[in-house]
Amino acid sequence: QVQLVESGGGLVQAGGSLRVSCTASGRTFSNYAMGWFRQTPGKEREFVARISWNDGYTYYADFVKGRFTISREYAKNTVTLQMNSLKPEDTAVYYCATTGPSGRYDFWGQGTQVTVSS
Length: 118
Known about the structure:
By secondary structure, the protein is an all-beta fold. It is built from no helices and eleven strands. A hairpin with a 6-residue loop joins β4 (33-39) and β5.
């Protein structure tokens, strides 16, 4: 059974940095991708960043390019999202997810709150 457990997050002032991590278990992840999404009340969940386990290829939403960095620690099945130059509009619950055989994000973590004060 695939499990994703997020950690990190918290409260930071605008301009500051936070890191959220996601540790995955329950299968081999080498042929899949991990992604970070975020959601605020009343809005749909939106894509933030993605990394492929095998080659480390990354992809970012435009609104985080240059500020956020996604990375993986292959041996620990952990993916980290380093968030710099945070803005109040980055406030959200951040979720990690991993793709299944279909290529869709089939497995999700429970989410971790990130709050950026102005």
